[in-house]
Amino acid sequence: MSDLAEVAPLPDGLQTGLRLPVVLIGLVGIVLALVLARRNGAISAVFGALGGALLAVDQIVNIWWVLHMSALARSAASNDDFTISNNLFTLADVVLITAAGAALVVAFAVRRRLRAIVGRPWLTYLAVGFVATVVYYLVPATGAGRGVKVVTYCLVSASAAAAVLAGVLWHRPRPRLPWLLFGLSQLVYAAADATFYTLHYVFNSDAFPSAADALYLAHYPLVVGGLATLIRLRIPRRDLPGLLDAAVLSVVAGMLSWLFLVGPHARDESPVLIKVTLLAYPLMDLAMLAAGLRLILGAGRRPASFLLLTANFLAIFTADTLYGLQQLAGTYHAGNYLDAIWLGGNLALGAAALHPSVNQLGRRSHAREQGLGPSRATALFAAALVAPATLLIQDVNGILHDVPVTATACAVLFALTILRMTGLVTDQRRLAITDALTGLHTRRYVEERPAIEVARARRRPGMAAVFIVDVDHFKSVNDRYGHPAGDHALVEIAARLRAATRDGDVLARYGGEEFALLVPAVEAGTLGTVAERLRHEVARSPIAVCESTTVALTVSVGAACYPLHGGTPADLVATADRALYAAKAQGRDRIVIGAAEEQTPYPIGVGLGGGQLAKVDFLRQVADEIDGWLSGHEHSHAVGRWTVALTTRLGHDEALVRRAGLAGRLHDIGKVFVPRDLLTRPAKLSDEEWRLLREHPMAGYRLAAVVPGLDIVAEIIRQHHEFFDGNGYPDQLAGTDIRIEARVVAVCDAWAAMRADRPYQPALGEDQAREQLTLGRGTQFDPEVVDLFLDLHEEGLVGDLRLVRPASTVDGATVLPVQSGPPDQETVSAKVFQNISS
After folding, report:
1. 602-641 in b/e burial notation, b at 16+ Cβ within 10 A?
2. pLDDT band of 221, cuts 50, 70, 90
3. What three-state secondary structure class fits 516?
4. For 544-572, how does the pLDDT look when each residue is reduced to its tens digit (9 = 90+)?
5. Cα separations (Å) of 838 from 695, 747, 779?
6. Which of 167, 252, 300, 645 is positioned for an S-S bond with 365, CB 3.0–4.6 A?
């Protein structure tokens, strides 16, 4: 007791002034608890608990005071003063004990709510920390109070590190690294607090810098590392808007920090060690602020744990900045209001780790970019004006300093603003061509791309393919499970189709349940493979349409390839669409490779009226009739298709390609004037019969020339039997005197004739047909065209002839040509050349 008497007593007025706020706050808490008991039990329980705790703290202080004054009384220090003071506080204690009892009654009345509060460790932690902070400020900084203040402050600071560790062990966030870094940084920070306040309160040392400053500075890299780890986990790499917004605010903060903290410290005449330490604090704070802003302004969910973590580093940054300003002005002293901000930041960190939502902080956001809402736009606009406003204010006040720094900040902010605006324009365009449900491109976008890819294929040359995918029986999903379930199914189907594509392919939502895929630089032989991969990827497993329901869905796929199935983007899409409907008609869950629709190519600049088109259609019918006389396989269709492919690969313009295609389609129409029995005779022809047969190019020329606008097509038909060496007919033209379209048609015609069964010969195999083309290279055929044709055949662009009907029928039974054994090579060659020359 004698030790207590030796402690310097507090004046009665100061003692009353310290206890009075505690009593008043406690009583207010009790009153609020009673008022809110029926309206909101949880809040009432909080106020009741806080009020009771404050009154309990007051009684602890009162006991210390009574013991102290008793010791003084025994030493006859001031009996009268003690008696008066003791009587007053005894009366106050009666009121306080009554109020504390009321608090207990209220807490008991809402015990269920109180248990709910206690069942939330993060909230309990904040409440206890708040009470401890109040105690820190109420305890006098004299005598034994010094030790109480140091212990209280250090316990609150260290409790945050313990709370982070407890939260990691309890909630097990994935990954744990960010929180382990936060916990370690707080442990270092608590060690710094213990060092600083022990030196200040126990040893009365205010030396700067001290060992505490080294520890304070050491905790910053750990905080920045934890924030950087969270940023990497939460924010997609392409979140450029969030990065630019954080950069704008960081540049402004950096400029202000230089003007008011860094610059003045740098110009100060203090010793080097003091100057370096003073500069280190704002620089470390800026690094922490930049990382924190990147986290705040980036994409991702913002649960309670996120908000508490944000409060932590913002509180530390605010208090550190004010500390730097006070150090610069020489007004800082330990125990001022900054301690409350620092302690509040520590408590926010511990609560963030204890909150159940801590598990959500490491989840990656699916959104790539953050929208520019009104609040963010206002903040960025105001931030961008800070630098020029600073120059303006300095100019008005006639005090210009650090102008290069401010001017540089203006330039950087201008550049960042331009980049942000450019990003907004790009974002608007992306939204215009992106389907909101699936994240794929829209139909508008995919309808523009075929023209680009077809033009590229013409220049290189190359191929481009279009696939149209339709979900089978999708209406039944919407009807049975509802439209939200249908939306889930579409999202999953889009994801599966995306997984089946390669980089550079363009996948889009084409309609309600239709998707379109544009594949550049594709080979004709791989169309079926790509289409089957799309079909299989969707059908490989059932699709979840809600939490407990899965549905087996399939798709039908139609495909078309340029130039094999169409010469224009519209033709390509139309062919793929027809193929899709063919797949639907065949039973769904299958793929169909399209066939080119009949078109009417004509020279660009020459229009065909309705009458001319009808004449062209009639000539097509004539060509089909003649093909039917000679074989059960297609002929003129294939020649026209291959001619388009070859002339495209040769790099000719669209007008020539279309003329060549139509000439290939109509090249044999002159045979309508040749007796049918002569065309189908298997025996060798006489000279007169040969002469009659060789009239068909001229007859075809005359038929085509009847149609206005088809003069060049007619000339191609006339020349398609001219030989490259000049021994052909009817005009014995040679070399490049023969139109290139006619030279291409000649090669395609010969290949189609050799690969089909004819009355005078069975179909040749691919090797034999290649050999015959090679034999005619340079004599009958243009060598360049032969080489290109064989190259396209190797690439799969020259496919097999389609069977359009059986070769012949006898009494309704199909009869196919039969060969008893391998033909004699000499006979084969003779028949081949008879075929080629006819």
Report:
1. bbeeeebeeebeebbeebbebbbebbeebbbbbbbbbbbb
2. very high
3. strand
4. 888 778 888 999 999 988 877 777 788 88
5. 10, 13, 16
6. 300
